[in-house]
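@channel anyone free to eyeball this complex?
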Amino acid sequence: MDLGNDTTALLTDRYELTMLQAALRSGTAGRRAVFEVFARRLPNGRRYGVVAGTGRLLDAVEAFGFDAGTLEFLTGNGIVDEPTAEWLEKYRFSGNVWGYPEGECYFPDSPILTVEGTFAEAVLLETLVLSILNHDCAIASAASRMARAAGDRPLIEMGSRRTHEQAAVAAARAAYVAGFTTTSNLEAGRRYGVPTAGTSAHAFTLLHDSERHAFRAQLDSLGESTTLLVDTYDVERAVRTAVELAGPELGAVRIDSGDLAVVARRVRDQLDELGATGTRIVVTGDLDEYGIAALAATPVDGYGVGTSLVTGSGAPTASLVYKLVARADGPEPDAPMRPVAKRSTGKPSRGGRKSAVRRFDGHGTACAEVVTTGEPQPGVRDRVLQIPLVRDGEVVGREPLAAARERHRAVVDELPPTALQLSQGEPALPTEFVNGGPRR
Amino acid sequence: MDLGNDTTALLTDRYELTMLQAALRSGTAGRRAVFEVFARRLPNGRRYGVVAGTGRLLDAVEAFGFDAGTLEFLTGNGIVDEPTAEWLEKYRFSGNVWGYPEGECYFPDSPILTVEGTFAEAVLLETLVLSILNHDCAIASAASRMARAAGDRPLIEMGSRRTHEQAAVAAARAAYVAGFTTTSNLEAGRRYGVPTAGTSAHAFTLLHDSERHAFRAQLDSLGESTTLLVDTYDVERAVRTAVELAGPELGAVRIDSGDLAVVARRVRDQLDELGATGTRIVVTGDLDEYGIAALAATPVDGYGVGTSLVTGSGAPTASLVYKLVARADGPEPDAPMRPVAKRSTGKPSRGGRKSAVRRFDGHGTACAEVVTTGEPQPGVRDRVLQIPLVRDGEVVGREPLAAARERHRAVVDELPPTALQLSQGEPALPTEFVNGGPRR
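replying in thread with the prediction:
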């Protein structure tokens, strides 16, 4: 199957290459430039966003290069001229990238990624950087709300079938960072080590001559700790059959339809009456963070979430932008840098390279996102938010996925309680702009 | 970059494999089975859906197999046992697939894909089939509305940065099927031959010492037929500079901000006054089908659409399901087939394999989607909707992408005028169920 994955270089908008060609010709391609990734706002009145995709981005930047076949496509279709193709042939990103570490929270105008290099090398990464971060941050931001709503109950990500087959793998990864427990997606297990889960669908029951035969077959194969799906025909009869066949050691039953609160209570009572007091109840079926929260007081032991997770629960993209905020006046490595910003109606941007700290009060609760133009001067209660990810073209920011997951849990716990509100409102932290010292 | 693309087999929910293992053990794995893909409803009161992704699906089914590394992952992690792994090692889909051809329209309950094989071989394809069709149909369905709203004006797809980097490639392909003219995505050009477009961003203007320098550089590189972006600073001044430098042969100007209707009228007047009567106006910036329609009476010559295209304009997934509708009573190839359906609350499905025809009135306008259980008996004014895609495991339904694009245009033209209404309402065609003859 042709996924064109020898390189990530063509996962790019054509205009990045036409700009490169024009800049090479006009002599501006070598000017040092700083691009920043940020969100102008959080979608749908959310309280915070979640940075995810950083690990994927570092892999993608390493794989960004122009091999012979790629160059032939570009020149053969008149997309770039020969001098540009010669430049591309030698291309490796040799600049610097700083960013919020994966799992960190972000707010409007948080500079979640900063790319510094020549204009030529940094502009080429725009599309790929945004694709990865816009997707993965959107999923993680929705997933984190679901995880907070679920509390200590485990969450299974099962949305693969509702999104692009490769986006599904990234979605499973982002959901895990944000607090999901497992995924149905096997490739996410293989590629990223995300724990996988799943037992059976209605089709399995329908395949057999009776529900009893189907349950028997599943128990024979997966053991009595498995999860039996009990709503293909009649839930009460199915639960009875399930406990009769598996005994009180039955792991769990899954309910995928109906009024989940009502059915879950009824099934809990029935299981308890049958002596299966340790058998868990897993619910699935069009759940989102609101549906999960609504089941908090019911005897549910775990949730499976599909569609709403992979579609970002109403915000399928994080609306992050990649903006040139500073560039040199000339091609020399030490040419002075100048802040730049467009003045388009309704879409102004703030020139100059930024740094950011999270400010804490005396009780260890975060109280502000402080974005500094110029050199940062962090106080004792400030956490500097950007870390080095790529230094002189070398990836230095790789970490295990578990570290991002652990970080996210800790970071959300530091936010003020309003962060956990599912209702629409203001961001949990205000973004404050200050002028730092002159950049060295 | 690890995209795991030697095989598509792990782009699959774990439960497909646990069901396989249990069915192999219980002796039901070899029963003949029929699965159908359909939508219970169209999202957001849309009038029709668009089938897309078929070509990608056929590639993905061909690439579905279990190599040594894949099997090692599955057995090493306790996902399948050794007998199941041995079965998987020999797996190639050997059954039959029929489907609506790519670009065709669909309605609630249209059987857009039918997969027939043993339960074992057909159940394994569920996740991958749904991922591809749910994504691509969602994008194409939104894109078709935008294309109808744009009329004869060209549409540029430019949403790559707002979605997963591989979903972006598929989105560009689906948009092209549904009527978009070009895409910004280079990989869609390389992989599928979709025409690509793009010239420059605000960063290019900001890189240069002045807008004049930037325009000069772009014209030197791309010629006077290029599109200059005129809203970085002051639109009126930019248009004057653009025509001064390029002359009246300037290809186009692009406006990405402000009240597009107002600005486009002003820019048209200015261009005409400057003698650039042939210079086109392209508008971009948060457009969707409604925004496009609202600009119908303005002097706009083309639209670029990003976010709303790749997110399905409010419906990022097509909500297609893959349901077992019939299966054999025993493992023999000639065992009688039995219709099956679950009875879950609120999610009933209709048992038995279906066929479908589109029925036309005497004027060549479509008037009904007729779904037949049993053998179809098409009348003279009926078009049979399913075509063979895979026969005995062999792909037979491949076609050039241009054929799907051409088909879509023709099919939409056959629908009643209500199909073109952007407002929420009933599907453009009613779905009628009839019983056909007994299946041979």
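from a first look: The first helix of chain A runs from residue 14 to 26.
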